[in-house]
Description:
Layout: H1 14-24, H2 38-53, H3 56-86, E1 87-94, E2 98-105, E3 108-109, E4 112-113, H4 168-173, E5 187-190, H5 213-218, E6 225-228, H6 248-255, E7 260-266, H7 281-286, E8 287-294, H8 295-303, E9 312-313, E10 316-321, H9 329-332, H10 334-338, H11 340-343, E11 349-352, H12 363-372, H13 389-399, H14 404-417, E12 419-420, E13 433-434
Parallel strand pairs: 5-6, 7-8, 7-11, 8-10
Antiparallel strand pairs: 1-2, 3-4, 9-10, 12-13
Helix pairs in contact: 13-14
Amino acid sequence: MTGGSLGIRSGSYGSLDKQLQNNNNGVSPIQSARKPSKMLKEKERLFHWICKFAGRKKVGMLFLCLISAAVFVWVLYIGKGEDEQGVSVENISVNNSITISYLGSLQTHGPQSNNVTFSLALPPPPPAVFLGYTLPPGHPCNLFTLPPPPADKKRTGPRPCPVCYLPVEEAIALMPKVPSDSPVLKNLTYIYEENLSRETEFGGSDFGGYPTLKQRSDSYDIRESMSVHCGFVGGSKPGRNTGYDMDEVDLHDMEQCHGVVVASAIFGNFDEINQPTNISDYSKETVCFYMFIDEVTEAYLRSSGKLGSDRKVGIWRTVVVHNPPYTDGRRTGKIPKLLVHRMFPNARFSLWIDGKLELVVDPYQILERFLWRKNATFAISKHYKRFDVFTEAEANKAAGKYNNASIDFQIEFYKKEGLAPYSEAKLPIISGRWNF
């Protein structure tokens, strides 16, 4: 805000003009009746001496300049005094950090003063938490609808997934500046079991512990103080002597990721590493792309010349995992998928993509569409044609992904927990649900 004086100066400039006007009308100045003094006679002699050496016109110009200079100095002096008496300076503090100064003129009339009141409309303070947003009316993405599932259930290969994404620049601009509102978790401890109850409790592993069903259910209820089972408990930090170990140089680099991390994994040399496409230059500079591999996959990548000394395969920064906790690479691959927040403690957002898939959209566009716009904590992609857990279990058995007996055991447990088969009567839910 620019300050300025609002006062009105009251100086008089009429005396000189009036005097010049009287001289032009031929009116002589008033003469004194007293006898000229000796000093006055000396001044007259000096005046005649000056006129003797200079023309009358030059003397007149000299006197006119002297009179003008005197009037100019007098006006400045009087104006400055009025400004100092008539202007007040006031400060407004905003959020205890910003001070706004402005000038206001006050005029006095007699013994009392009239105070001028200023009203300054300040912008509202920014919200303390992120609340999401909505796109403006008429936006193309508001009118976008998903097409029906493909009719050919035997179709193989890449499948389209139509989604209305914002341009990359707009998605980046909508990245939340503050965190979302969430339950307060002040004290969090991880349970470490010296004597694991492998025989008495359901499921679990030496890596993540063996929680009881009650402990597992209680872990879903966020409270101020909680104790939960979690991997990376045995070591001093995730990845150091925890049964899912990584090199110190990798751990250091992972701690430097402070924004968005895209993670994937390939164990047992099961899949080929696919390079992301349609990635903006901004994402290449700011997003962390990490591919977790085991020693078998590392040996293949080095022998094929795909992995160099910089530990990178294209845009992916590879991290070799030592001492995997499971013999099945698919189970070991679930660790970075579910515990990426433990492995990247300083990252704000994470995006997981299966090793067999190819990322074809900029990460910021995906995060804007599925998290920020709806102010969601996490989002899970749905299967392109299967919505039922029991149907998915049969498909896994047919594909030989796991031991059939272990799949049947898990499904029977889900049934006892209340999981019911999917039907269209459960719409708009498009997956299996629990009957509670």
